[in-house]
Write a structure and sequence with these properties.
single chain, mainly alpha, about 85% helix
Length: about 325
């Protein structure tokens, strides 16, 4: 059990999370100087805020980072609460880019990408010392270094997924996992709860969804159960916004609760429609991991567009 299950799980998850945090930090450093300015400038209406939230989340590859920054801006009085509603809707859409990229099954490019980007990142640290007399060249090398670091992080994400997929045969032979799958056949609520708890524990919905996609691609779990886990992961990710709002202003807490209500409401709406989601995603992709990625995208798109008109209500705007 140690070598066939626990070690691949620990190693794969550590590699995945390290890659995600590395990519997030690099992209945030690359776009950070413009992030707050963009949030303040492009959020005058909920629709514009949703577009800005989608783009920024796709850029920095972290819905939690954009949400936490938004809560901080509201607590500081820089932004009004109605401006944040569109951003929250957009973060859920933008975060789908990660799972869609993973769903393309491009694991075979992970090692070549790492071997190509790591020397570029390393050279970026050496060359600035010699190019100190040329500020523009130094700034360009700094951006190149961050971009290479982001590529290194993404390759680690793909490698971590590959390692976690290797534990699928061991999972199939374990009685506890078989019991969980059997219970989930009777009620998919087990899958939703598992996704919520796992995401709240590791503080990364992308990691939980990636594990689910890996198990589905190995035919260890069904696509239907995988979609239920994805819905749960969207619920579990609310813990980050809740923790960020503690000790803040009333309006900062309102931002967090709007995020929680959106994800809980979306999960409650789509849980009875999991079979429908599976059928639609099967038309868009043939492999199980791609189907789960498309199901998450459909869920977040529909949830955000359904909630968008509510952001224009006079009672909400008066806040």
């Amino acid at each position: 059990m140690l070598t066939s299950l626990l070690l691949p799980l620990a190693a794969g998850l550590a590699l995945f999370l390290a890659g995600m945090k590395t990519m997030e930090a690099a992209l945030h450093a690359l776009a950070g100087p413009y992030l707050r300015q963009a949030l303040e400038r492009f959020t005058r209406t909920p629709l514009r805020g949703m577009i800005a939230g989608t783009g920024l989340t796709a850029l920095v590859q972290s819905s939690s980072a954009v949400t936490v920054i938004t809560i901080g801006l509201v607590n500081a009085g820089v932004m009004a609460f109605p401006q944040t509603l569109g951003i929250i809707l957009g973060t859920n859409i933008g975060t789908c880019l990660t799972t869609e990229l993973i769903g393309l099954n491009i694991h075979r490019f992970a090692l070549p990408l790492l071997c190509a980007s790591f020397p570029v990142w390393l050279a970026g640290w050496i060359l600035p010392e010699r190019g100190g007399r040329y500020p523009r060249l130094q700034a360009w090398l700094a951006r190149l270094r961050l971009a290479a670091l982001a590529c290194c992080g993404f390759s680690c994400v793909l490698l971590g997924m590959k390692v976690m997929q290797s534990m699928a045969p061991a999972l199939q032979s374990r009685g506890l996992f078989a019991w969980f799958v059997e219970q989930s056949q009777q009620s998919l609520l087990w899958g939703l709860l598992a996704g919520a708890c796992l995401t709240a524990l590791i503080q990364s919905s992308a990691a939980a969804i990636a594990m689910t996609m890996g198990l589905a691609s190995a035919h260890t779990i069904s696509v239907e159960l995988g979609i239920a886990i994805v819905l749960g992961a969207n619920v579990g990710t609310c813990t980050t916004a809740f923790l960020a709002s503690l000790g803040g202003s009333r309006y900062g807490r309102l931002v967090a609760w709007s995020h929680i209500l959106l994800n809980f409401g979306g999960a409650a709406l789509f849980f009875p429609l999991i079979t429908w989601l599976e059928g639609i995603s099967a038309l868009l992709a043939g492999d199980p991991s791609g189907q789960i990625a498309h199901a998450q995208t459909l869920f977040n798109l529909v949830s955000s567009f359904l909630a968008l008109p509510m952001c224009y209500l006079k009672g909400v705007q008066r806040l």
